[in-house]
């Protein structure tokens, strides 16, 4: 499956958004928590803030793409009888 197609696959997007939300919040608190918690929103580096969510989303979607490729390769390397047991 092509990587760009995988990005827009609903299951990959949903999982990627969940991962990005959880990991992005944690990383932003680690990296800019003092500024965020002080309420000084003018001092927040908004580019870093956004990228901190984008990176885990990209990693999640890339991992889903790789797993999907490997699963399809595994299915294609088995006989039809073997493939039926893998999908049950």
Taking all Cα atoms into account, the compactness measure Rg is 19 Å
Mean pLDDT equals 85
N→C terminal distance? 22 Å
Total number of helices: 4
Total tally of structural domains: 1
Molecular shape:
rod-shaped
DSSP strand content: under 5%
Q: Give the helix proportion (percent range).
A: over 70%
Order of helices and strands: HHHH
Structural class: mainly alpha
Spans of at least 5 consecutive residues whose pLDDT stays below 50 are none
What oligomeric state do these chains adopt?
single chain
Kindly state the number of beta strands: 0
User: Can you summarize the main beta sheet?
Assistant: none
Name a few traits of the molecule.
mainly alpha, 4 helices, 83% helix, 88 residues
Overall description:
With 88 residues, the chain is mainly α. It has one domain. It is 83% helix and 0% strand. The chain contains four helices and no strands. The mean pLDDT is 85.
Please outline the helices and strands.
Layout: H1 3-7, H2 10-38, H3 46-76, H4 80-87
Brief sketch in words of this structure:
The chain starts with a helix and ends with a helix.
